Amino acid sequence: xxxxxVNYRYFVSSGPxxxxxxxxxxxxxxxxxxxxxxxxxxQNEPSPWERYFVPPIAGDDQIMFRQHSWSASSVRRALExxxxxxxxxxxxxxxxxxxxxxxxxxxxxxxxxxxxVLTALHxxxxxxxxxxxxxxxxCPQQHLVRDGRVCELCVGRRPWPSVRYRCxxxxxxxxxxxxxxxxxxxQKGFFDLIDAFVAxxxxxxxxxxxxxxxxxxxxxxxxxxxxxxQRRCTLRERRLCYVGRIDKTxxxxxxxxxxxxxxxxxxxxxxxxxxxxxxxTPTGEAIRARLRERPIPGVTLPGQLDEAAVIELxxxxxxxxxxxxxxxxxxxxxxxxxxxxTPVIASDLGSMHDxxxxxxxxxxxxxxxPVALASALKTALAEPCAETMGERxxxxxxxxxDPDMHVDALIDLLESVRSRR
Length: 421
Fold this sequence. Notes:
Layout: E1 2-6, H1 15-29, E2 33-37, H2 72-83, H3 86-99, E3 103-106, H4 116-123, E4 128-131, E5 145-146, E6 149-150, H5 160-164, H6 172-188, E7 196-199, H7 202-210, E8 218-220, E9 239-243, H8 252-264, E10 272-276, H9 282-293, E11 299-303, H10 307-315, E12 319-322, H11 332-339, E13 344-347, H12 350-356, E14 362-365, H13 370-380, H14 383-400, H15 403-420
Parallel strand pairs: 1-2, 1-3, 3-4, 4-7, 7-8, 9-10, 9-12, 10-11, 12-13, 13-14
Antiparallel strand pairs: 5-6
């Protein structure tokens, strides 16, 4: 098959992009040709198809909305990408005319590419499979979170509560644009053009069905992770780690609160806590300010690490922590930790519950509760306990998150939607 692979970033920025390049490699290893379509950023990986990529909303190194230098042209382009971009339609159409793919696998497309991706593919007779990377099709804020708690007011309803509560960046204007764009997409029937959906987690499938998408079109397909056949680091330190986006929804403040509690109890004097991720975000700056005002011994923020450094961090830690405040969509960092034989302490919520509950591969704690997290951390710091959980973690990954199992199921799905056209 020739597969058009669509995502609004063509470089590794977060979990969806790690998935993009990993699944691309798996498909190509099976003899399939992958034709990418994306936004033209300076950080992009090289591609012979990049001549068709569309310009970014603002500068070619301005990735996040908070980084954009707003001018009349960038505001216009942002509105077009939120609602419908003829520029995107024309660029993808030119690529499709040359490439003539058999099927499309679409990851992130809303807001930075727009639903024009769907109409271009449909008009060229290309079957469409969309993988859910977040809750953006049922929640204008994307994560089903408001004020640090899960919020489902817009699921299956009109999206106006998100405007009332300024859910997007705390801005009435940004919230209104996202809500109106979602309503516009529904009214125009853009989502009806999609032949099938991939849901990486049970909670994602459940919320999308509650939001009005047809259950029969949604294929459960858990994210995969590369197996680690041999540990490069065999010495585990008295270390806990967090790896991922430094964002308010990730619950990092809950982790810091829990570590402070351990220090007050005298249970963490020799414990290192590493928070790895891009700390230049507003949340990262707030965390640094907090640590300057109230230093916590042993807590470090080394910034964003490359893949090798992340694996070394997992392999040398007693446990990793995923204290997210939202449902998550089967976070890559959780699976990567398990693949390294490192147990995970996670919020008892959504996909994290599904992975850890009753598996013996980690511990769950009540979401947003630093006291409950502190108790779980003390358990994990008991090394025999961590070692037992780590062995089960490696087994779990092999059983449920194998790359070959994933790509076999994905190819079957792509072939099935192709054959129905």
